[in-house]
Write a structure and sequence with these properties.
Layout (H helix, E strand, L loop, with lengths): L1 H18 L2 E6 L5 H6 L21 H13 L8 H23 L3 E7 L23 E5 H14 L12 H24 L3 E6 L1 H4 L9 H16 L13 H20 L7 E3 L19 H6 L5 E3 L7 H10 L3 E4 L3 H4 L2 H14 L5 E2 L8 H24 L5 H19 L7 H7 L15 H10 L17 E2 L2 E2 L7 H10 L5 E7 L5 E7 H10 L3 E4 L20 E6 L5 E2 L10 E9 L10 H16 L2 E15 L8 E3 L11 H5 L1 H14 L6 E4 L5 E5 L5 H21 L2 E4 L14 E6 L5 H17 L1 H8 L22 E3 L6 E5 L5 E7 L8 H18 L17 H7 L9 H10 L1 H6 L4 H17 L3 H11 L1
Parallel strand pairs: 1-2, 2-3, 3-4, 4-5, 5-6, 6-7, 7-8, 11-16, 23-24
Antiparallel strand pairs: 9-10, 11-12, 13-14, 14-16, 15-16, 17-18, 17-20, 17-21, 17-22, 19-20, 22-25, 24-25
Helix pairs in contact: 1-14, 1-15, 4-14, 5-6, 6-8, 6-9, 8-9, 11-13, 13-14, 14-15, 16-17, 17-30, 20-26, 22-23, 24-26, 25-26, 25-28
InterPro entries: Amidohydro-rel, Gln_synt_N_sf, Gln_synth/guanido_kin_cat_dom, Gln_synth_cat_dom, Metal_Hydrolase
Protein name: Glutamine synthetase
Organism: Friedmanniomyces endolithicus
């Protein structure tokens, strides 16, 4: 029995090692299609080039790769190298994406050093996203940044070359210009949430013995090597930096800026160093990681990653990772560059001394997708062999060995690079059907992972800190930045000199508009000082009546940061008090990093990702459907009565002309005075129900405008003794929606490319629509609109051109550069629109990243008129939730949507909704409706 238990434990360990998703902490771009087919495939297992490459087929590393590639390509055991190359060419020609996908299977994300080759030969780092579970991130190679800046300075005539190097003053000025722009670029990368670390190849250039010293000494050495050794040959070397003092200055500047950012509260982004194994450009003696010891000691807060197992100096690297808190050992590149036995020995050497929490996994995959595949296959085999041997010899228990594998493959990099990737999908992927996993043996199970995310609200995204109004500088460069442009406020107050107050506003998770009121003088001081407004972190977890929820944590604070682009005057009609303005805000944490739990930040981040990675600009236009009610009247709900009832859609009766039209006109004119142009206004079908149509705007601006317009409507109605409500069904019969019109547009994509992205976007939205309804229709009363044959959104998950009986209507198709306009109809006025629209866009972005196919056909009929067979043929197989409980259940079960959204958003929202619904369930139905109508 004991032997059986050991065997079972080893089997489980092997299964984890073979199937665990990996975070590849160092890889490079795959070649573009032509280069992928024409590149020399013989280089996949060697650093040799030129004549030395001729002997590569005689190496054990090559022979091992040949054996494994036959399996990858499904070739017979006796196939030779020519057969392998031929089959590979055939696969690339037939379906290159399928081969790449197979090679990258099991990869959560790749941290891509995109400075190895020129952009003309390689795919951009974001292109790799379609083959990984989570989006890839950048590692910025500092020497490539330097070369690019130097080339630009030369083109601008600011870099002395040739005989101009004799001009000492010109050289000094050139050095100052270069180092200033280099530091600006590093600061920008520190602020960029797509960049998770830096890389230096100083090992190749002048060796790892970086000379540290006082700032003045480093600068003098840098200037001297710049003038004497770099400039004379700059053109011939294509601005490649190979001058020791200059190379050292680049490394030290990067370290100082990372350390400064950490000192101010930002996440410290690691600096990777090429160590050990390399091509014949390298000086092997100067590639030992031991040379880095003075630098490591000088910058104890800068995480330093020793790449490529430091082979053949693995033990030296392991020692450094053991005795210095800030040093980590990467065990990449030796797979597939070293023989099987050598690989196992390297893993053993890494584990001889190094804590397993300091060992990172990478492939160093580059150019060819097969390099990723071979590295992962061989790495898993070597780690399995070593860890199983340790278990059999009782050096480790099976549970301990399993944890070691999980940490090396995933957890260590996830923590070090601040990736905040969820283990939810990973846990479900590894967990066999019907297997009950002991939570104590796996602290990274899905439930606990979500709970941790809901509490951890800091991200590495956003601008550098601005502390106590004082700017922080490093090497003469400003590494902090105020979030405000004071000139915007100056222009605003010049145009509106009577403004006495600024109302800073934000929507909480449940759609309640919260605010702080600042006298204009206090707001002016806040902007000029670059400060924010502090509120309790607990405010993220309170209900509409300020009752607390399980996610309400009163310890700590978050900061409210006004967005001056949203600054508007507030409506003045019927106002008794002083003139005021409204300004929407976002949340940041104490290190001035955008809060991942802020719905406004999430929406902005998704929009920026679509623009930067896919050249897509989103436009969103909202319809404001509102019901005007008389207060204290004996109406259908006993407290409110509709303003009028003698009307239908698009009518203007004498009763409307006397009462509703003046109100609508007054609102429209006030909105225009605020800078909000109404495109159309008309009566809707419901009693007292009217609609205002807002113009299309970028997503965050569109929601800001929506919130401010809805507030204006309610304020003017209140001034006339009325209540304007956005409740989805204030009175029996016709419901009230908040339709959003969304279009994907591009200035650079072809019509075919744009349509492909557009259909992937909406296919993923439809796939996640039941779960999205928990955000877009967030109250039990919202589901009175989920009915068939009522011009609402129907009950089926479907889309159709000009079809108002489906939840997603394609309105019209535009020309080149503009996508179709789509109307999301399963959306109402009780939603936090930053959260709801962010969830829709996040789901769509998930589809774009994964190339989701639109399998559902254009439904041009009412789905209720179709037979089951017809609906199945069109891909219409799923119904919308008909209750809030069903929508919440769908959201709870949608791991892919939770992963697509910002960390912690889903778990936090679910906790809030559960507490809210428990509170509302204690109210009688008529009281609950009145309570919501008073608040929305």
């Amino acid at each position: 029995m004991a032997d059986d238990a050991i065997t079972a434990s080893l089997d489980e360990l092997k299964r984890v090692i073979r199937t665990h998703l990996v975070i590849d902490n160092h890889g490079h771009n795959i070649l573009r299609s032509h280069q992928l087919k024409s590149g020399n495939f013989l280089t996949i297992t060697t650093e040799a080039h030129g004549e030395a490459l001729e002997d590569a087929p005689k190496s054990l590393a090559h022979l091992q790769a040949v054996r494994q590639l036959k399996k990858l390509y499904d070739l017979p055991a006796d196939a030779d190298w020519a057969a392998i190359v031929g089959k590979r060419a055939e696969l690339l020609e037939r379906d290159a994406d399928s081969l790449i996908k197979k090679c990258l299977e099991g990869t959560q994300t790749i941290l891509i050093d995109d400075g190895l080759d020129s952009g003309a030969n390689i795919e951009p780092y974001s292109w790799h996203n379609k083959f990984t579970t989570s989006p890839c991130k950048r590692i910025v190679r500092i020497e490539t940044v330097a070369a690019s800046i130097l080339s630009t300075l030369y083109q601008q005539g600011r870099l002395p070359v040739g005989i101009a190097v004799a001009d000492e003053e010109a050289c000094n000025l050139g050095w100052v210009s270069f180092i200033a722009e280099f530091e600006q670029a590093i600061v920008a990368a520190i602020q960029d949430d797509e960049v998770v670390g830096f890389k230096s190849v100083v090992c190749y250039r002048t060796g790892l013995d970086v000379t540290v010293g006082r700032d003045l000494e480093v600068n003098e050495h840098g200037l001297r090597s710049f003038s004497r050794h770099f400039l004379p040959d700059a053109l011939a070397r294509d601005f490649r930096v190979e001058a020791k003092g200059m190379n050292d200055a680049l490394v030290i500047s990067a370290c100082k800026l990372v350390a400064a950012a950490y000192e101010q509260g930002a996440a410290a982004k690691p600096l990777q160093f090429h160590t050990g194994l390399g091509d014949n450009d390298i000086s092997l003696l100067d590639s030992s990681p031991a040379c880095l010891q003075p630098l490591i000691k000088h910058f104890p807060t800068v995480p330093i990653v020793l790449l490529h197992s430091s082979y053949p100096y693995t033990r030296e690297a392991g020692y450094l990772a053991t005795v210095y808190k800030n040093v980590y050992l990467d065990i990449g590149e030796v797979f597939p560059m070293v023989s099987r036995e050598g690989q196992e020995l390297i893993v053993r050497q890494a584990l001889e001394l190094t804590p397993t929490s300091k060992i990172l996994w990478s492939t160093d995959g580059h150019h060819f997708p097969e390099t990723y595949w071979l590295a992962n296959v061989q790495g898993r085999e070597a780690i399995e062999k070593v860890l199983c041997d340790y278990v059999e010899h009782e050096d480790l228990t099976a549970a301990q060995a399993t944890k070691v594998a999980q940490d090396i493959f995933f957890n260590n990099s996830n923590t070090l690079y601040n990736l905040r990737l969820s283990n939810t999908e990973l846990a479900s992927r590894e967990k066999p059907a019907g297997h009950s996993q002991d939570a104590k043996s796996n602290p990274h199970d899905a439930e606990k992972g979500q709970e941790t995310q809901s509490l951890d609200i800091r991200t590495s995204k956003g601008p550098m800190p601005f502390v106590n109004g004082e700017r922080k500088t490093v090497a003469g460069h400003d590494v902090s930045r105020s979030p405000y442009d004071p000139q915007k406020l100056t222009r605003f107050t010049t145009e509106h000199p009577n403004i006495q107050f600024v109302v800073v506003q934000w929507l909480d998770y449940l759609g309640t508009l919260r605010s702080r009121w600042l006298p204009i003088t206090a707001f002016d001081k806040l902007v000029k000082a670059g400060n924010r407004i502090g509120i309790s972190k607990g405010n993220l977890g309170t209900l509409q009546n300020d009752k607390t929820t399980p996610v309400c944590d009163p310890v700590g604070q978050i900061l409210v940061e006004p967005d001056l682009d949203s600054l508007r005057i507030m409506q003045t009609k019927g106002m008794i008090g002083p003139a005021a303005s409204t300004c929407m805000a976002r949340f940041v944490d104490n290190s001035m990093q955008p809060l991942s739990l802020c719905p406004r930040n999430q929406l902005q981040g998704f929009a920026e990702t679509l623009e930067q990675d896919y050249h897509i600009n989103l436009l969103v236009g909202f319809e404001i459907e509102v019901t005007f009610c008389r207060r204290g009247a004996l109406g259908p709900n006993g407290h409110f009565a509709p303003l009028d009832s003698n009307h239908a859609w698009g009518t203007l009766s004498d009763e409307q002309l006397a009462h509703a039209f003046p109100l609508m006109a007054a609102i429209s004119l006030e909105l225009k005075g605020m800078g909000i142009e109404i495109e159309q206004l008309h009566s809707e079908s419901g009693a007292g129900q009217y609609e205002f149509v807002l113009p299309p705007l970028p997503p965050v601006q569109a929601v800001d405008t929506l919130v401010q317009a809805r507030q204006c409507i309610q304020q003017i109605a209140a001034a006339q003794g009325l209540r304007a409500t956005y409740h989805p069904q204030p009175f029996p019969g016709i419901g009230t929606a908040a339709h959003a019109h969304i279009s994907l547009n591009s200035d650079s994509l072809t019509a075919e490319e744009l349509e492909k992205i557009e259909m992937s976007f909406w296919a993923s939205v439809l796939e996640h629509l039941p779960a999205l309804c928990a955000f877009t229709m967030p109250q039990a009363g919202s589901y009175g609109r989920v009915v068939d044959d009522s011009w609402t959104n129907g009950t089926w998950v479907a889309w159709g051109t000009q079809n108002r009986e489906v939840p997603l209507r394609r309105v019209e198709t535009y020309g080149v550069g503009n996508g179709s306009r789509w109307e999301v109809r399963c959306l109402d006025g009780l939603a936090n629109m930053y959260l709801a629209l962010g969830a829709v866009v996040g789901a769509g972005l998930h589809g774009v990243r994964n190339g989701t196919k639109m399998v559902m056909k254009d439904c041009t009929s009412n789905p209720t008129t179709l037979s089951d067979e017809q609906k199945n043929e069109m891909g219409i197989t799923q119904r919308l939730p008909t209750t809030l409980d069903q929508a919440i259940e769908a959201l709870q079960q949608s791991g892919s949507l939770a992963e697509a959204l910002a960390p912690g958003i889903v778990s936090h929202y679910l906790a809030m909704k559960q507490a809210e619904q428990k509170m509302l369930s204690l109210m009688p139905q008529h009281e609950r409706k009145r309570w919501l109508m008073e608040r929305y």
